[in-house]
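Record 1 of the preview.
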Amino acid sequence: MIDTNTAGIDKGLNKVSWQGMKAAVAAEPNKILVKYLVSQAAPDYATNITVFILEKCGLIITVGSTMASVTENAANANPKVKFAIVACTYQSGCLTGKKLRNITSVKGTATAVKTVVLATANGT
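->
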């Protein structure tokens, strides 16, 4: 599942991330179901992540530095939920808290997103 920032699904890293997720579905259609929520404003980020947590999604993907703190907060509060964040790392300073084992940083390419989705679906 992907929670985009306010740019929507058709622009920039959000578009690339969605393309990667659709490619993962094409590779493993019986294992992967994807959907997205577009945040209309910054307060929607946490709400949309909570929706995905309540739906017991296998992987929640967020996109970009604007979602870093809310992703870290959700991952910290839900250590059994797997998160990935596109184009945001601890090394770059985008993620700033204690390094959490349930957050994977993903390069901002469709191939990288596809790889992390497939790895999660296949338990690796």
